[in-house]
Amino acid sequence: MVKFTTQETTPIHVENTILRETKKDLSIDNAFRTFHDMGFDPVISGSMLFIKSVLAKKFKIKYHPKSTTREKAVIDALNTSLDNLSPYDIKRFMYHVLSCLEYGSSLQEMVFERVDGYQVFKGFSPIHLSTVNRFQFNRGELEKVILDPAENDGLIERVEEQQKEIDGSKLLLFSVQPSQDSPLGQSLLKGCYTAWKEKNVYREYSLIGTAKNLSGVLSVSLPSEYITKYLTEPASDEAVYVDSLLQQAEMMHAGKSSYVVVPSDVYEGGQQQFQVDTIGGDTSNDYRVNDSIERCNREIMLSLQSMLLSLGQEGGGSGSFALSESKTYLLTLFAKSIQDSIAGVFKKAIRTAFELNGITSRNIPDIEFEEIEDVDWDTFTSGWQRLLTAGGVNPGEKLEDFFREKGGAPTSANDQPRLEDIR
What we know:
The protein has 423 residues and is α+β, with helices and mostly antiparallel strands. Helix content is 44%, strand content 14%. Strand 2 (105-115) and strand 3 form a beta hairpin. Helix 1 packs across helix 7, helix 7 (193-212) runs antiparallel to helix 10 and helix 8 crosses helix 9. It starts with 13 loop residues before the first helix and ends with a helix.
């Protein structure tokens, strides 16, 4: 008995392909490599550099309102050590921390040293997430990290002694929006993956159309006898001639997919027996593809909080410059949220430093970043002018000195007339 089977084919749909690859590319085994590859996109790369430049601010530890004299002395020593970190300065440390925006989390090992009788920060060693074999958490607290040997790329050889595991008490785990389901945080790139993948599909089809020039496919007409010999008798003279002709067509027109072979035979009335029309003659497709790519770019920038980069652009921008103030305010809120998250994790480093210096107080100080945006002088003075006019505050020398300090003006003592001017 012969068993017949029916061969089934599943057509590939672009939307289904993207959804299927999303699960694969964003799985825990492939996510870090996917996020690394997404960094080659110019819009993503520019947006991430923009966000990092906004957030990569220096910071210092400020006193707790109830800090004692001993605690203030330790805080001063820690602030001094932050200005002398080794081998990376505080700016480089911030860029390492901000890799959590791309990968969802960033791992730093704390290193201390004794200086002038105090245990202070010597440096923070970054640990790339690709070298981590396993994270061990206990009730939400990082307990241990087990590492794999770092891969050498042939150019940079890592000769330092490889650690196999690191105790969680020595590590700072910075993460973006961690949860019970995702204790390692959520990468900003995860939200724009679909737009990035869709954009790559559009660009690929656009490049195919450009390379193959679908609006002008070559039509090669040959006698049916020659075509038959080419298909059935490859060694015949006719087949050799056809092969030579097709090779010339390939060289002139970018590959085998750029031509169509049809018989040149005609009926008695002179009408051609076979007719093949050109494919893709509607050149307006190019504009629709470009519009789709621009839409994907806007979605990417919206996901990465970088819509300010497209203000004022014609044909697909995100608005006029009149919207810059409100969008800048939203970006500032986002940046401050990330800074608050970083400050919360860095408290662990301060708490560890206090314990090493024999301080068991609960007065753990916070950190203070440099201002993200300078205060607009017109807005600042207008607000205070309304308060003074309404009688909400009373003018005085202290308030005047405050305004002078904010505006960078000389102090009131420098406004005293010189003796020679009086004479």
